[in-house]
Every structure is written in C-alpha cells, then in structure tokens.
User: Fold these one by one.
Assistant:
Number 1:
Amino acid sequence: LDHYQTYKSLTAGLESLNSERVRFLGVNSTEYCLPESLHLAPGKNIWWPARLGESVAPRNLCLIEQSGLPVTRRCLGDYLYGCAWDWNPGSELCTGQHRPTTSALYQYSVTSLNHSVLGEVLTRAGEILAVPEQVIPADLFYLSKTLENVPPVLEQSETGSPDEERRAYFCNVSTILSRVMYLNETTVVLSQRALNTTNILLDATETIVNRLAVANDTRAMMLAGDQYDCRDRGGAIQRHVQRHDGTVLFRTARLIVLIADPTVANVTGLALFRARNLSLEDLSDAAENSESEEDFSGYTLRYLYMNQSLEDLLAESDLEIGSFIPQHVIEGLDELNTAFRTPDDEEQDPDAPDESTTTLPSPVEHPDPPVSPAPPPLRVIITIYYNDHAFRETKNGTIARPNSKIISVSLPGYGSRMPDEIPIYTREMARELPSRCGYWSFEADNATEFGHWSYDECRLLNASDRGLRPAHFILKATVCCWGGPLLIVALFLSLDYTLYLKRDNLSDICYPHGRALWYGLLLPIGTIIFVNLVSFVIVLYHICTIPSNLTKSADHAMTLAQLRLSVFLFFLLGLPWIFGMLTTGTEEKLFAYLFCLTAPVQGFVLFVYFVVMDPSARRFWCRKVATAAVLPGAPHQRRGR
C-alpha cells in the first residue's frame, strides 16, 4: 500500500508539470509492478503488487474454468528501465461458478486473521485437502497465501497459549503439508508453474514452525519429551515410546517434524529406518509407481545425538535417510552469532553533544549502556518429507527423483550461515535410478524463477548394503598391490635369475634387463598407463557432457574443481613412468632428468589435493594441530600459572 500511495503521489505531481515544453510519459518502479487502481471497475480486475519476474493473481476471485487457476499477470522489465505489466486480462475470462471450498480458501487469504479464528482456519484448510480429487490448482494457491498470513498472527499471540492449542497448530500445519503430497501431480505442477505456489507454501510453513518452535510456551511443552501422532481423528495423541527431555515430535502420514533443544537433550538429528520386511526392490517399485497408500507406516525413527558415531550410523542396514548437527557445529554457533552481530556503537544520538564540546558535571544519573541482544534460543528442527511433490521448480516443474525422501535441517534465528557443513546420510537404491543430490533454494534464479534445485557442491554420503567397505579391505588391497608385481618377479626369477643381476661392472645398481625389463616391468606399466588414460578420457567426457539443468549456478567454481581434478589425474596417470619408459634403449639424459624431477612430486601432489585443498581434511588437521598446541599448557593452568 505504501508503494502504491507513493506511486500515485509521484504520478499526480509529475502530471501537473505537463506543458508545451515538458511531456510526462509515466513512472516505473525498478522492483515492483504496481496496480493501476484499488477499486474494482466493470470488466476489470484489481491486482496485487508484483516483484520483477513474479506472476500474481488478482485481489478479486477470478478463475478460469478450464484450468482451475486464477487469471494471472506477470511483471516484466529490468532494473535499469523499470518494471511493467505484460497484459491486463479482464473479468470476461472469469467463470461465474465457484466451489464452496475455493471460495472459503479465497476468503481466508484476503481476510485479516486473528488468534480467535486461527485454529479454525488451519483445521478447515486441512479438511479441504482430505479429498485430493476435489482440489483444483486455485485451492492450493489460496491455501499458500493463507498460510503466508499466519506468522504475523503468531507474533501477536506468542504468550499465554495452552499446550493443546500449540499442539493443534503444529499438527494442523503438518497435516496440510502431508496432504499436499497426496495431491494430483498435474494440480501441483499447474499451480506452481503459474503462481509459484509450492514455494510460497514451503516458505510459509517453515516460517510458522520456526516461529512456534522458539516460543516460550513450546519450550514448556518440549520438556516433557513426548511424541504425537497427528493422524488420529481425536487430535494429537501422546505416545510414550521413548522419552527424550527437550524434544517434541509430530508425525503425520507423509511428514515428520522434530523440534529439539540440544542444551537439554543432546539430540540434534533424526534418522529414518525402513522396516525389516520392506526390501530395496519394494522401495524401487514404489519410487517408479507411487501409490496413494504409501506413507511412513513402514518406517521407524531414531534420534541422533551431536556426538553421534558416523560409522555406526552408516553401518545400519536399514538406514533410509538421516541428518544430525555435529558437536563442533553447535559449539561454533555462539562465535558465529557474535561475529555477525552488528553493534550500534557507530550510531550516535543527534542530540548528544559533540566530542569537542566541554560539559560540566551533572548530578543526573546516566542510564546504563545498551545491552547487546541475546542470541536466539537454540532449536534444531528436522523435517522429513515422504516425497518431493511439493518441491517443484517454477519454470518446468521438475523434481529431484520420483518419490525420493527429502530431509530439512533448520536452526531458527541463525539462517543458512553455519560454522561447518551439515551432512545428510542416505542409502542408495538397488536399481539404477537417477541418484542426484541437491538442495532446495528459495532464491530467484535469473530473476525469473523463484525456488529451484541446486546441485552445485552437494555431496551426499551413501552406504551400500555391504557396509562401508568390503571385509578385510586393507588385507585384500595389500595382496593385490604387492602380490601382482611379486608374482611377475617370481615368474622371471624362476625362468632366469640372471635377468635381475648387473649387466656390467660400471654400476652397482641391479636393474632388470632383457625379457624381465620388457615383459616384467614395461608391459605392466604400459598397460596400467593405457587403462588410466582411457579412464581419464571417459571422466573428461562425462564432465563436459553434464546436463545444463545440473549446473545452474556457480559455474566458475565448478570449472575450477574440474581443472583441479584434471591436473590431479594427469599426475596420477603416471607421467613419471612415461618418462622412465622413454629412457629405455637410448643414451639421452633428457627423459632421465624428467623422470627424476617428476617422480618425487607425486606424493606432494597427493598431499596438496587430498589435504590442503580439501575443506574437510583441512579443518580436521587444523583442529588437531590446535588441540596439540593447547594440551601442553593444561598442567600449568591447573597449577594456576
């Protein structure tokens, strides 16, 4: 409304300057497209303001009968010349008949909500989604706009809410998201591509849950450490499976929400395990042929702790997906919060005297200095989605993988700035399904697409059914790496041991010659180099043919990573051995010098690429060195020095 009033005032003022020498053309905002009027005229619609690249529906209820969508209008332009609407669809496109459910959701979206009706609105919205076949794209859009209006209501009623009411809020929001995952795929894609619906829905529900999680009333509810099943018609029924003080869990058919206070429970994560009788083949069939009956009924949950053993977790044969925040990340939050806190020391009171002004002492008592705002209460929110139907890109409605599980980790008040990475642990499917790993970004992509999958710098840990590695891995690797060359040497020694003796008295070096040189040394090395060369070409081919939808951003970082990998493989392919082979049968010293110069560098290259340039390894060794430097001073500290 403020933008609209400013726009009208500027337009009226500039129009008054029209003369023979000055002609007023118009006023454009560089960020918003503003409505022409806030009054409904015959044959016209009233439009909401739209950001650049955004499509909006009108303020009035105007649906297209064929698609079940509201009429839309898109804001075009750029930040240089300003924004402008594309076209103005009139009310002649509107159908005269509206479903009662659609009318109800529309009224909720345009009406100012308050605390007295909030519970009824959320309950009614969940009931409308109970029959997926009757939901049209407009229903999903007006539902998302309704949820977008809920957080301000929660701010006004943060205190004094009974536990039953808080539980009802959590269950209603969880039920709404769970039932969205049952909707027809065409309905969801149509609504998302036209009006960015699912992105609004996800952002709104996350904001609601975060707002409820940090409230004082929720902390009192978390101290009981209970779990609630929101699928029961009688409400959220308490389930005493295993009490964990400082946690509360809400479970629906296709959505699980855990809220934990690490300072009380030491719980910072959640893992989902499939039932023993649910095989990987069954999961693969469900991924290809998703049925409405599929839900979390065949899965069990387990809380994860900040000092959780990664090896024990990945060794679980039934692990489906899980995530937890490691202890060093939790410990680094206070330091991170202090680093990003901006003190108000630079802001001075305009009425305060200048530093050069001399003032007399005053008996008036000075107020206490302002206290820095306390860090937000630490809450860890883990959300597991049964499928990715709600994560649709605006442009083409793509998803990561059919029926794939999605896990969300949130720390309200800390944003996306973390001291370190928060890993996700999953188990790859038995069949060769697209196993892409990505994270959902709410940011705009090229100023035209809000909400999209990003696959850059995403590393998803997978554990196979055989465990982390084959049994006796070191022993088998030793036998293969040392046993193969030893077998070749033993064979030639048994045939002619003189092949490994000195050929003359000019040198004390024993080096194979004859058949031992050609077939026992050069041929195996040449075979290995050839196989590595083929592998190198195949890797480069796959890097150069990555689909464009997997490289939406951070192309520069990806190019640098590919370049580092290419150089690394170049050294691993055996460049020194190529120089060594070229010294055979010639008296030239060039390749001999090149061999001596490049062979010792291999170990250094391995150290640089696996330790120095790897963030995880670098942080690990930095912590080790820092710990070792602190430990010698510990006895002195205990003695008071």
Number 2:
Amino acid sequence: MDEQRYLYVSDHVKGEVRRYKFGENIGTLVAGGNGQGAGLNQFNYPRYLFVDRQQNVYVSDCSNNRVMKWKKGAKEGIVVAGGQGDGNALTQLQYPVGIFVDTLGLFFGKSSSNYFTKSRQCTLIPFSERKGYTQLKYL
C-alpha cells in the first residue's frame, strides 16, 4: 500500500501488477500486462512488490531472476538487479524474493541464494547468509 492508500497486487498468472483504490474491483494496470515473458514489458512470475513515494513500483520477477523498476506511467520497466540468468555473479540473481528501497534510493533485496544491495551508483553487492552466523557477510 502506498502513501495515498492504493493497494498494489501482483498477478503471477497474467504477469502484471495492478493498483486498486478502496472499493475498486478492476484496478489500474501499472506494470506488465503483456503476458508472461522476458521482455521489458513482461514478467515471468512477478511476486514481491515495493512502491516508493514517487509511486515507482519495484517487482521481483522471480522466474526471470531479476528485479524490475516501473516508473509511474511507464510502458516498460528497467532492470535494476539481475537479469543475466540464474546464479551468484554480480549481474545474476537466483529467484529474487524480497525487496525494499529506502528514502535515499538504496535498494535491498533477497534472492534464494544470497542477499544483495544496490546503491544509486548501481553497484550490486552480494551478501551470504551462512549457518552459524548472525550477521551478513560480504562474499
């Protein structure tokens, strides 16, 4: 839910994200909506969402191993993390599941194999969570 009290919902079957006002049944398409796929205007299992104060929508596009940012009113998204296949390299994610963007634009996320963060300068920093450790460690 954003500051204007709109509720955002991802639909992994249709490959889209919709925004709903209270009491609305249909909602407004804000991301995707072009079927499942790997194009910049598509998702393949959109799952987790984050909406910032400017109503930019960040979506974990799980089966495409990427996180997409959709600016308000955009017809296609921007890959902000991953998008280069499944893996642990700096340009790869493995099934991204959790995302958060702070007020300074610093991006945090969790994939099934690691944690990652991305600054405004687009530096991707992977972390590893290992058994027995209570803190995140740089790889």
